[in-house]
Amino acid sequence: MKKNVFPEGFLWGGATAANQFEGGWNEGGKGLSVPDCTSYKSNVMKLSYKDQHSISSKDIEEAMASTDVNKYPKRHGVEFYHHYIEDLDLFAEMGFKVLRLSIQWPRIFPKGIEEEPNEEGLQFYENVFKAMKERNIEPLVTLHHYEMPLYLALEYGGWYKREVIDLFLRFVKVCYERYGKYVKYWLTFNEIDSAFRHPFTTMGMVEDRFPGKNFEEVVYQGLHHQFVASALATKMLKEMYPESLMGCMITKTLSYPENCDPQNVLLCEKENRKNHFYSDVQSRGEYPSHIFKEWERKGIHVQFERGDEEILKAYPVDFISFSYYNTRVSSYDPSNKEMVSGNLTSGVKNPYLKTSDWGWQVDPTGLEISLIQLYDRYQKPCFIVENGLGAYDKVEEDGSIIDDYRIAYFEGHIKAIGAAIEEGVPVMGYTPWGCIDMVSMSTSQMSKRYGFIYVDLDDEGNGTYARSRKKSFWWYQKVIETNGDSLADE
């Protein structure tokens, strides 16, 4: 990579999510949320994907009756609620230009149905945004990051009921009114494509609460409501703050064919096209024809109300944001082949790639491919809003954490971004996931660490919550200070 590749004003920073980060689950008038019911399983690495992420009505009832924050670790996160000044000081020390964070819907509307918002919750986020402004850190705010009020999941079937659109827009309007002067960059739904991977987390849907219904159809219906809500949230933003920008957010699950067998190439093309379905709707403003064909084949009916298609078409997003962690291999005959998984997706092992401590394949080149692919498809700026390496970190006797493996990971991926920029892709910014250690979304572990900042907390909830800088902290500080030139080839 040459010098001066990254444009002036490139948004270097980090990414968080309130449900993994914030804590204060029962403080400040906050209501119960969907992630407050996600339990930690000590044997999680031995469980199947289904057992790791399935949840039943009985599981939810047990969670509602419990005040245990260690069994349900997203309730405590890493206590940003009480440490936000300290954390923002550390982010500012690293040189962050932007911080991705989310606003918890049930902190503003505890059940989601209230007529008036919770002032104490509103004031907390205003305090955070004011503190960010004092440190010259731009907020990148996700409005719906797996943080639905639990009441709506139980009483409305999550996003299945059309009425939830208006309840969400009430929340969105309050956020714009209160925080619009602080926030320029917004995202509607985090990884909206995860609806089928974990419907309770993403959409507040529990399969046993829809007896006699085709659950795939139920999820598609809820997804349609989220698409409409996203377009209407974009419409509202443009009316209230015309200069602000709205992005979609997808999981970029790039697939490669196992070989040049045309059957593998065809399967790979279909899997990549299915991943693009979600950004197609939000960026192009219409459903791709292959989804209608799929519904026809499966006998799926999704109810569109009058005007829905016009709303989607009229209010597309301004930029494409995405998470990128790994790639996968498509094989029409995966039997007797080694399989790997990552970020709740799986595929045949790629023999050309190394894997992380959690078995995720590490592929910097795939990020360059993804950026080129997304820009060529949509002709809109791209923003990498999640990317990172989950790893076991060792604290040395002197308190240091020598995470050279993390530095190597980020160096490869940042150089890939630079290569895509050199290919003509306009990239707005880069916010590595878990810039500070947080509770894992997928496994609810603390030992799966992503951050430049270490948090003294273990999987069982033991620790002081003290923050300390890893070696990667100083490395990333230099990358930001030089606008990426510290990685340039000599």
Please describe what this structure looks like.
- The chain is of the alpha/beta class and about 500 residues long.
- It has one domain (about 10-485): TIM Barrel, CATH 3.20.20.
- It is built from 16 helices and 16 strands.
- Helix 15 (about 405-420) links the parallel strand 13 (about 380-385) and strand 14.
- The termini are close together.
CATH T-level topology: TIM Barrel
User: Roughly how many Å apart are the termini?
Assistant: 9 Å
Q: Which value, in Å, is the CA radius of gyration? A: 21 Å
The description of the largest β-sheet is: 8 strands, parallel, barrel
Please count the beta strands (DSSP E, at least 2 residues each). 16
Sequence of strands across the biggest β-sheet: 1-2-3-4-5-7-13-14
Number of helices: 16
CATH superfamily: Glycosidases
Percentage of residues in strands: 5-15%
Assembly state of the chains shown: single chain
CATH class: Alpha Beta
CATH architecture, by name, is Alpha-Beta Barrel
Query: Number of folding domains?
Result: 1
Mean pLDDT: 95
Shape: globular
* Poorly predicted ranges: none
Structural class: alpha/beta
Give the helix/strand layout.
Layout: E1 11-15, H1 18-21, H2 49-53, H3 57-64, H4 80-94, E2 98-102, H5 105-108, H6 119-134, E3 138-144, H7 150-155, H8 163-179, E4 185-189, H9 199-203, H10 215-240, E5 245-251, E6 255-257, H11 262-284, H12 289-298, H13 308-314, E7 319-323, E8 328-330, E9 339-342, E10 345-348, E11 354-355, E12 361-362, H14 364-378, E13 382-386, H15 404-422, E14 427-430, E15 453-455, E16 467-469, H16 471-481
Parallel strand pairs: 1-2, 1-14, 2-3, 3-4, 4-5, 5-7, 6-8, 7-13, 13-14
Antiparallel strand pairs: 9-10, 11-12, 15-16
